[in-house]
Amino acid sequence: MIKKVVLAVFIISLSFSNLYSQGRVTGNFVMEGQYYQQDSSIGTTEFPKQMAAQGFLNVRYHIDDFEFGIRYEAYRPPLLGIDSRFENSGFPFIYGTYRSSDLDVTAGNFYEQFGSGLILRTYEEKALGVDNSLNGVRVNLRPDDGVELTALMGTMRNFWTQSDGIIRGAKGKVYLDQYTDFFGDNGVSLEGGIVSKYEEDQENTYNLPENVFAYYLRSSFIANSFSLDAEYSYKINDPSAVNNFSYNVGQGLLLSGSYYTDGLGISLDFHRSDNMDFRAERSATGNIMNMNFIPPLSKQHTYRLTSLYPYATQLVGEIGMQADVTYKFAPETTLGGEYGTTVSVNYSRIHGIDSNKVNDFTYTSDFFAFGDRLFYQDLNFEISKRWSDDLKTNASFLTQIYDKDVAENGWAPIIGKVTSNIAILDVTYRLSETYALKMDLEHLWASQDSVLKTADFVNGNWMMALFELTISPHYYISFSDEFNYGNKFVDHQVHYYMGSFAYVTGGTRMQMSYGRQRSGIICVGGVCRFVPASNGLYFTVSTTF
Prior knowledge:
Elements: H1 2-15, H2 17-22, E1 24-36, E2 51-63, E3 66-75, E4 88-99, E5 103-110, E6 124-125, E7 130-131, E8 134-144, E9 147-158, E10 161-175, E11 187-198, E12 211-222, E13 226-235, E14 250-261, E15 264-274, E16 317-329, E17 341-357, E18 363-386, E19 391-403, H3 404-407, E20 417-430, E21 435-448, E22 462-471, E23 475-483, E24 495-505, E25 508-517, E26 520-524, E27 527-531, E28 534-544
Antiparallel strand pairs: 1-2, 1-28, 2-3, 3-4, 4-5, 5-8, 6-7, 8-9, 9-10, 10-11, 11-12, 12-13, 13-14, 14-15, 15-16, 16-17, 17-18, 18-19, 19-20, 20-21, 21-22, 22-23, 23-24, 24-25, 25-28, 26-27
């Protein structure tokens, strides 16, 4: 009902030429598609349709203190790896907002985050097929320069419908440094909030709570050379399909500290989450209707072979730490050279939590104890250096331990842990004012605990090479090849060739690629989805206005 009212107001506003002349229209458009070809040599699946295409158009109308927005989406059908339940088209996102100096009111669809997201984070990530926007009403109030208040109520998007669960929440933030000179020039804030999800109990086996309550508390301290953050969350028992109907409470803790000075940056992070999976419907699984988000505790790598064994945050329970040190040797020093040299070291280690079963529905857990099972470990080194005005390099080495059974196999004892070492050399050389050449060479050595009995396309050593030519300011041409030459099953050793061409002008980008895409896991911010192998022509067009 709210969306229909907002849409009516939006259309009426645009219909008046005098209003349109006073306002402005902004937006963006994205369309991507793929033509699939069967390729048994890489294990492609049977395609329901040989051609897939999806896209969206956002239009926002601004006038005085008001903003109206609408998004059209079409999945005809969605690309492989995106949930097939998205196949449809329509207007799933419609909103209207009033903004003033001390008040914002939004009706319709919106995204919101409380703190770091431990009890509430709604967002959109097309690459993952995630969109858990809320449909309802939100009010933001700023009664003073140092106070922010938010209240909201709504239901969550469930593909083309809405969740059965009703979400209500409120948060407040106070900037203490605005009210006293005690903290000097340092920034100090306190924040807290509550969220309640109501969902009827229609289960005959269990006595399920219909109102699930959660809260969080957060404090931040920011000085000239360091910062400290701490956040704690608590959720009452929330039996669901994901946690096997556990009646334990959920708890989360994030601790973060950073130190930064000329040329040096150090950060230390710790987090623990226990039974913090929070859904708009208790029957939801996968990446569907997640209400919250646990920030990842490992470095988010971007190179191709580093994505072969990416780690997804385990919302059911994990404990870990991360340390990151970056140092820039100044120019005109022995190690800095003429342009300076940047060295980074990052280490993360994540375990399961230490727990003891009490009965079929509850367990006990030592809050700060690391469990015996190692989920993930990553030690990586990176050296970035510019050698001249035209030449710069980036060299990396990583060693990782990845529990594939936890991350991909639903805890079934199939593969065990995979140990990998990765070496990367990234070189960019400017040939002229117009032309630049980029070369990316990668190699991955891998071994795993179990003896392989079933053929796959992932195991063993890999090598990868990419060459990209930039013709400034409009054209990009690239060619790459990934080769799993170390696969234990010789007939599964495959070259994954890919060629791409892109044209960029203003806010518009068009790209076309042809080749093979290996199967694997794609992750963004610790949230992952599986992408099946494919071969064919891929294209995308995007523009902003």
